[in-house]
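Handout, tutorial session.
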Amino acid sequence: MEQRTIMKKPFEKTSASLEIVRVADPIHVQVQPLTSERRWIPKLSEAKLLLIASTGFFIDAYDLFTINLVVPLLNIQYNGKLGSKLGNAALAGGVLKAATNIGCIAGQILFGTLGDVYGRRIVYPAALGLAIIGTVLTIAAPNSLGPQGVFIWMTIMRILMGIGIGGDYPMSASVVSDRANINRRGLLLTFTFAMQGWGNLAGAIVCMVVLSAFKESIQGHGEIGHFNAVWRLILGVILVPALATLYQRLRLPESDRMTEVLKERKLKKAFEGVQGTHIMADILDQIGNKEASASVQQSFQKSKLSALNEFQEYFSKWKHMKHLFATTACWFLLDLSFYGIALNQSMVIADIGYDRAVEPWQNAFDNTKANLIITVAGFLPGYYFTMFFIEYIGRKPIQIGGFLIEGLLLAVVAGDFKSLSTKPAGFLVCFILLQFFFNFGANTTTFVYPAEIFPTRVRGFASGISAACGKIGAVIAALSFGELSEVIGTNGVLWILAGTSFLGAVISLLLPETKGWDADEADAFEQAQQL
């Protein structure tokens, strides 16, 4: 078929069978056929990029899963008790679990903004490097500090680790979106985010392998102190893929889109600052208009912060701010329920009596096995359903449908909690479905939306703010779940999470469908209209 050039309106949808190719004119695109076979076969460069970009999510999910299992091990080692509540205070375990997410909030905003200001190439590997340092320091916690000292040490170092992991959210989203073909962008972003599922799976497998290796000494000889080596090995294994990926990120060049943005800023600053502002100031000085001259000079100084000014200028418009509100609010509400369940899954499993074993090793192994079943049957497949359908049915139906089904499932479990607590198999089925629709739903699309709806020049900042609001929800969930469950019961907490899921579906109505949309084209079109 002959290639043709068309005029494209901002946010105009394109056919799923067409490939968008950027040309010099920011308002025009070329369209050429894209076979369904090519859609599912990543190019070598795409495959390499996806592996580099997805490692951060692998680490994040691995950490999320393993800390959920490591806390009971710490409790056995340092307090001689079974369960996920450190000592007698539910909050103690919650703070340790929430530490990484607390760091993520700062990292997402910091690295997202820096990535827009200085470019992705410099900032991207720095985020992973910080996560590696935090992990090393976490597993190096000295036993000489005593139980309380170890918990404090781990909490501080996991916050540092979280800053690095947090930076990976906006950076990976931006790096992939900057380079992606429009009608493959959702698929590539979902593939990147889907590494969370593999991180969960790897966490479960590593936990079971390490526990099995120490079974004889712990179960056979009662050497509980060996749990000290178990939890350090479990948390430290993630350093292997992290270090391998860091080398690749250091060699990753800047994307064409971001290079173009950085060049445009330099040209704009040079033109406005040297050829425009100083000349105009001299003219105003000569005619005696000192006040206007000072104003022009002041504008020149402000142009030095052009990237930050762009954020303010772009989001000062309600139509853009509305989208930012929706992406941040939806991610916040999603993570309340997602992390409320994920970080406390071991606690809920204990509440239904699945890990009734009183022998420490068997208790830890049963807990890991239950979490593994949920991951393999529900958590991981959900990502790939999204990957398959996202370019066909779009982001908005998946997000709204996911929120509604999550709310319904949480309401069912909350309403029939006592009955289900006597039927572990039925409870696990509900949790498997819940994890499936988290990922074939809003957990994936809340990541995809900010990377697609905002243009390159503010994408890192917007993705970082949206992700940070999500992590605020995660921190609230981690710190409050244990406390609330003791006051209103686990079923009462699940009712609250059901309500937040339904609210997320309502707020999602503010978002447009981004399938086939090019935010950079729309941004250029909008700027051209303002000239």
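The second record follows below. Compare its token runs with those of the first.
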Amino acid sequence: MKIIVHKDSQIIQISQLCCVTLAVWLCFGGDIEASVLNLKRFVGCAVREFTFLARKPGCAGMHITTDACWGRCETWEKPILDPPFIESYQRVCTYNETRLVTVQLPNCSVQVDPSYTYPVAIRCDCGVCLTSTTECITSV
């Protein structure tokens, strides 16, 4: 699309540009809004990008972006007549497969090892909470 600088056609060209901009915004804006709504309704477990601050005593912090597990899994409890009086089915979104990555934290003291190791999610699933890989609350 050419923008002509003549006074008579300038208004037409600018309005065409505004229409194109509005159409692009509506197309892509609608997709973004739909994906946010889908995430709000999503039940399951998926790999998703996550940024955190890696810290270690004696070193400066470092922002790290990695893949982590994210989601909601089916969980329910129902009362029963026999002890413990509750039947429960509790699943959490947790790591199924990971790989470890090691980075060097900046500005560490001489006596501090700058190595920092963290997991990168490769596959995630709804499963039983294992304290070896996940923080689990076992009692209230």
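Points raised in discussion: Confidence is low (pLDDT under 50) at residues 1-35.
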